[in-house]
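Appendix B, example 12.
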Amino acid sequence: MAVNEHAASGPIDPGEHPVDLGLTHVALPVERWEETIEFYAEFASMEVVHERGEPGERVAWISDRTRPFVVVLLERGVDHRLGGWSHLGVGLESRLAVDRTLARASEAGFDALGPFDAGPPVGYWGIIADPNGHNLEVAYGQEVGIAVESPEPDDDRPGSG
């Protein structure tokens, strides 16, 4: 399907298609296509849920299928990276899982930093650079769900905000 095919056929009928609301995706330019898809499958439990285009111009949506959110991979030159403090973050089931994921990434030749224990609400975390230089944070014990479900922001905690 061409990117503008829906535009040519008119607006999407909400009765026919569910309409996404809220934050649905973040897009990353990537040059190393196959390695990038394998990286996110291995270290973030993400899989391709949509793919289109010809080599050199491919687009893939990858998801861990835990919520309606995807990382959109755009095959093209990478002129900027999620580096420094910029990153994608995934929650893992334990501190041991963070340790093992960082070790596997390092053994596979990826730059890995950590683990670090920052305490609540940040938790136990480390960073892995993907094949294009984008940072992936793997963490345990972050309190994103608690913050989102709380009726009021918690601004009293050290390091918050």
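The radius of gyration is 18 Å. The first strand starts at residue 25 and ends at 30.
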